[in-house]
Amino acid sequence: MTATHIELAGVGKVFIRDLQQTVALKQVDLDIRQGEFVAVVGPSGCGKSTLLRLVTGLTPATSGVVRVAGEEVSGPRSDTGIVFQRATLVDWRDILGNVLLQIQLRGLDVKAYRARAESLLDAVGLGQFMDRFPFELSGGMQQRAAIARGLIHQPTILLMDEPFGALDALTREQMRLDLETLWTRDRMTVFFITHSIDEAVLLADRVVVMSPRPGTIDRIFEVDLPRPRGLGARVDPRFADLVDKITRIFLERGVFDDHRPSLVA
Q1: Which residues in the chain are classed under CATH 3.40.50.300?
Q2: pLDDT score, position 75
Q3: 30-89 pLDDT per residue, tens
Q4: Dihedral angle computed from the Cα positions of residues 179, 185, 188 and 192, in that order, rounded to the nearest 10 degrees
Q5: Which of 13, 44, 130, 219 is the most buried (most CB within 10 A)?
Q6: What is d(CA 201, CA 196) in angstroms, rounded to the nearest whole number?
Q7: Strands of 71-72's sheet, edge to edge?
Q8: CATH number given to 33-60+72-79+155-256
């Protein structure tokens, strides 16, 4: 059996502001295996992004413990790549320079990583745009560059917080295909936060369904879809069945309101 790579045991998070407490997460237990792709889906405000920040070490847990590769997380780790919803590229560097900026900030040899940066940009369809600046690229192209930047230092874990949330539907679908290709090639452990049930099912080995705040794990579903999951995966009955099961959970929890007025008089 593949070893556990990320472990959350009894994890809780409470935020305090102006003497008011907000319980964001409560008693979260989750093991993610080495090389596994796990997607987390849940309503807004349920603590999905907080959960990711706990794994990154950017935010400490209030209770419980977070471990990566058997070590308790006490701060940011060098073996982790992060991609946020916005690309956050710097305006004064071209795309290749943006990808290599992380190498420079880590104090590594930029020249030694140039070939890898070019290879990653080729893999995400930006091989012909390495010398362009962010303002010359679309939002989807900028986000592709952000993914390349997140992978440039060969992390064993890739943490992604709604990375496709600001993209149009067609670009989002292409990014999904590109990400699966990169993951299949490199097999890093991926922890992926999304609001999209379809996206979670199409990408993940397992889908974690979270409850409304305070966030807890409601259900975990294994995704029984063959890879690669190209455009045809949407017509697989197993895809529709799993999307329906997750949707029904949110209906039962009151996240969705399906009591629409009839169009028939």
Answers
A1: 33-60+72-79+155-256
A2: 87
A3: 999 999 999 999 988 888 999 999 999 989 999 999 999 999 998 888 889 999 888 889
A4: 20
A5: 13
A6: 9
A7: 20-33, 4-17, 63-68, 71-72
A8: 3.40.50.300
